[in-house]
Design brief:
- With 161 residues, the protein is α+β, with helices and mostly antiparallel strands.
- The protein has one domain.
- Strands 1, 2, 3, 4, 5, 6 and 7 form a seven-stranded antiparallel beta sheet that branches.
- Helix 1 crosses helix 2.
- It is globular.
- The N terminus is likely disordered.
Length: 161
Amino acid sequence: MATNTAQTFQPAFKRVAQSNDFDCVFAVIAMVANKTLAEVRQVAVDKFEVPEHGPWWPSESMITGLCAHFGWAGTVYKEASTVADLPDICLLMVDYNPKTEMGGRHILFHRQRAAGGVEYTIDPGFWITDPAMQVRVVKSLPPPLWYIGVHAMNAPKSGNK
């Protein structure tokens, strides 16, 4: 995971904490779309047949569909080797174990060009109570980096990959 450095910027996105072990992707979409976790979850239940209770796994099509519902275009999962390869805004998968094919949760990555190109992550984990660990400036992340890039619909895509 990223190491934290002192924050000298105001993040462009407000942190939304996930409510359980499985809704990190809803929390990240809520951050990007400036919605509540409950709003995103309800759309997932109503339009994408996510069960209200019980296990589920976020598919690419559900993630990009939810993003589109809230006015954001999303890519398929892509792999990057370095932070420099990431688009300016993405749902970044972390803690994935390729050997067991388990784990994996989503955090928000943002390259805030308006703040001099600062790159940071916002972690929705409900267990992270220290604010300094919720929003972290990153210099590097361990590869491989799996992500779904997002950008506002009908907005210029400059800087996004």
